[in-house]
């Protein structure tokens, strides 16, 4: 028994030693895209970033993007809770396109626009990044009420991404339903449904979260496992989402899909609610319609070959009319992206915006503020 115990101890020690060595190797090489988890489960918005946590991201760009979240858990520089005198704050809400993990913070559209605006005014501008991958208006409404307002912004910019924001707003169209939704109750009023938090899957995620943030090997294994688990079903759902004949792009044709039409209307209801919250607090609200990939003529042609009635400017024009109806600011990116691409022929996307894409977004924001707001801003305190 003594010999057996010794052999077992030696074997166990060897296994532990190997695992430690592998973890150290992965931590320094990031082989297979290994990285420590920097998110934590949340019972309202599924996931949040961990304040002060370092991050490593190597997707789409040709080099890794690294950094550290601020003390409030957002991918941005540190913020003062109280707004400094002489500062004009713009809180920017959105999903992964606002989060901008594909580029360095200083090269994101937020930082580029912030520097440009500050350089042409006596005010200091601060564009605050409240973007998080997979967020739609459901999560953004929660973040607006519980986090954004406490910073007392002068303006809130909501980035609306045709596609994800429409599909993910409803169980009827969402590829992944393990997320919060606003649903209509028996009284016809919208109510918040975060029942996903009671699922066994979410409870397991909460229990293993600490280990994922400490063990890069365990984080890699769970990330790969989650990627494989249900991948085919989610991929199929996403393919349907992007079909011109069925998905969100069908809204750009004369035969819009019924389910995505309902989701689109729900998105607008939540946007209207967010706008009302801001207006009641004397905060300017601007809706930004992000572009689709049809800013490229060859992609527009491909969609028109499927359905000749396809209109690449549908979302930009329709949301502009919606914004005018509820009396909020509006900024569209489809035409600026088309014009930029026509001018220089450079890709403005990898999957998300490229460096050129971020420059285009920043220039469009600065031009909008110059035209619509700057006269008021220059006189504010």
Summary of the model, kept short:
The chain is α/β, with parallel strands linked by helices.
Structural account:
- By secondary structure, this protein is of the alpha/beta class.
- It has 14 helices and 11 strands.
- The protein has 2 domains: 31 residues; 301 residues, Rossmann fold (3-Layer(aba) Sandwich).
- Helix content is 46%, strand content 15%.
- The strands form 4 sheets. Strands 6-5-7-10-11 form a 5-stranded parallel beta sheet, sandwiched between helices.
- Helix 3 crosses helix 13, helix 4 packs parallel to helix 9 and helix 6 runs antiparallel to helix 7.
- The radius of gyration is 23 Å and the shape is globular.
- It starts with a helix and ends with a helix.
- The C terminus is likely disordered.
Amino-to-carboxy terminus distance: 80 Å
CATH H-level superfamily of the largest domain: SGNH hydrolase
Helix content: 40-55%
CATH arch. level architecture of the largest domain: 3-Layer(aba) Sandwich
**Rg calculated over all Cα atoms:** 23 Å
Shape: globular
Low-pLDDT segments: 376-381
Largest sheet: 5 strands, parallel
| CATH fold category name of the largest domain | Rossmann fold
Number of domains as seen in the coordinates: 2
| DSSP E strands, number | 11
Structural class: alpha/beta
């Amino acid at each position: 028994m003594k010999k057996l115990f010794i052999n077992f101890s030696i074997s166990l020690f060897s296994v532990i030693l190997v695992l430690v060595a592998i973890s150290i190797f992965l931590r320094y090489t990031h082989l297979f895209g290994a990285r420590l988890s920097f998110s934590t489960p949340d019972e309202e918005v599924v996931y949040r970033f961990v304040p002060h946590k370092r991050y490593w991201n190597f997707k789409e760009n040709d080099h890794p993007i690294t950094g550290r979240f601020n003390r409030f858990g957002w991918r941005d520089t540190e913020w003062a809770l109280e707004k400094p005198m002489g500062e004009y704050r713009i809180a920017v809400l959105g999903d992964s396109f606002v989060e901008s993990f594909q580029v360095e913070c200083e090269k994101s559209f937020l930082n580029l626009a912030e520097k440009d605006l500050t350089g042409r005014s006596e005010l200091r501008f601060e564009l605050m990044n409240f973007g998080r991958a997979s967020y739609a208006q459901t999560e953004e409404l929660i973040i607006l009420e519980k986090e954004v307002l406490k910073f007392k912004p002068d303006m809130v910019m909501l980035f609306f991404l045709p596609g994800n924001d429409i599909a993910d707003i409803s169980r009827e169209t969402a590829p992944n339903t393990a997320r919060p939704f606003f649903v209509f109750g028996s009284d016809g009023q919208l109510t918040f449904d975060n029942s996903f938090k009671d699922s066994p899957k979410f409870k397991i995620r909460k229990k293993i979260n600490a280990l994922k943030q400490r063990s890069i090997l365990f984080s890699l294994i769970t990330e790969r496992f989650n990627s494989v688990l249900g991948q085919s079903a989610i991929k199929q759902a996403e393919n349907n989402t992007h079909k011109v004949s069925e998905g969100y792009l069908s809204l750009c044709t004369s035969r819009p899909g019924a389910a995505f039409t309902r989701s689109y209307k729900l998105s607008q209801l939540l946007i209207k609610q967010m706008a009302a919250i801001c207006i009641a607090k004397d905060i300017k609200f601007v809706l930004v319609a992000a572009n689709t990939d049809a800013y490229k003529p060859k992609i527009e042609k491909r969609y028109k070959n499927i359905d000749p009635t396809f209109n690449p400017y549908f979302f930009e024009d329709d949301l502009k009319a919606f914004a005018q109806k509820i009396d909020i600011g509006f900024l569209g990116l489809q035409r600026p992206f088309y014009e930029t691409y026509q001018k220089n022929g450079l890709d403005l996307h990898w999957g998300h915006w490229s460096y050129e894409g971020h420059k285009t977004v920043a220039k469009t924001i600065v031009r909008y503020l110059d035209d619509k707001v700057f006269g008021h801003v220059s006189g504010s305190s």
